[in-house]
Design goal:
binds S-adenosylmethionine; about 40% helix; about 240 residues; alpha/beta; globular; 9 helices
């Protein structure tokens, strides 16, 4: 998936994101709760978006400096509500030179967009202080399994075992947890709207016309009459070796 498409989708959905991203809110809570009463000199948040994790983390722990980043410039306005003195860097985090090392790097629901996670983990390693912590969430191959079975569309999600293999070269894994959350809808169109409002129609780069939407709705109702949508998030807390 190219970064321009990802940016455009999130630019459109950022104002509706927090009220629609129910599962992302639950995992943001879990990550923040893990750091309750911890203290850090410096935190970096990658892909802060509308600040779901920023808000929870900033009130859960103590910190001296908070750096945040997102592809979408408007994210800075949201993040500043929760961390007024944040140092915000707009752009692709993989290309930004931070010129500093952090005690904690966090990221909620961002890394699933990228296939070369080995490179991302290498970058995080280089940005962490000795004993620094990387805490992130992503999604497993079970994520949106209904959408995949109907349309064949899916991101290249990694399993917990694949993530462990990639991380354990440089990190000690403190926690890796895969959970399942089912949302139910009363109309397949609401599933499409839900995905759009959480920036997820980037699964497909082609525009759907009336026929594609109708086919999708008919197949969904036939195969999944209760209209579920499965989220399968993975939370990882890892410490630099
Ligand atoms: C699913 S949203 C998650 C937002 C937020 N982390 C949360 O807790 O809800 C993914 C966010 O990652 C951002 N993003 C995706 N790729 C990025 C990249 N390469 N560099 C910076 N931000 C990125 C998107 O713009 C979007 O705001």
């Amino acid at each position: 998936m190219d970064t321009k498409t990802i940016k455009n989708q999130f630019k459109k959905s950022i104002d509706k994101y927090s009220e629609n991203a129910v599962v992302q809110g639950i995992i943001a809570n879990e990550i923040a709760t893990y750091f309750s009463d911890s203290s850090f000199n410096s935190i970096l948040e990658i892909g802060a978006g509308s600040g779901l994790l920023t808000q929870r983390l900033a009130s859960a722990c103590k910190y001296k400096e908070f750096y945040a980043n997102d592809l979408v410039e408007k994210s800075e306005l949201y993040v500043k509500k929760y961390v007024p003195n944040v140092k915000f860097f707009a752009g692709d985090f993989r290309k930004i030179k931070f010129n500093k090392k952090f005690d904690l790097i966090v990221s909620n629901a961002v890394f699933q967009w990228y296939e070369n996670l080995d490179k991302i983990f290498e970058q995080c390693k280089n940005l962490l202080q000795p004993n620094g912590i990387l805490a992130f969430s992503t999604f497993s191959p079970e994520n949106f399994k209904e959408i995949k079975s109907i349309t064949g569309l899916s991101l290249e999600y990694k399993s917990p075992a694949e993530l462990t293999k990639l991380l354990e070269k440089d990190f000690e894994i403190i926690k890796i947890e895969n959970t399942e959350h089912k949302m139910n809808f009363d109309n397949p169109l609401k599933i499409l709207a839900h995905m759009k409002n959480t920036g997820v129609n980037s699964l497909s780069e082609t525009h759907w016309g009336v026929k594609e939407v109708k086919d999708f709705c008919d197949k969904y109702i036939e195969k999944y009459p209760d209209l579920p949508l499965t989220y399968s998030p993975i939370i990882v807390i890892a410490k630099l070796k």
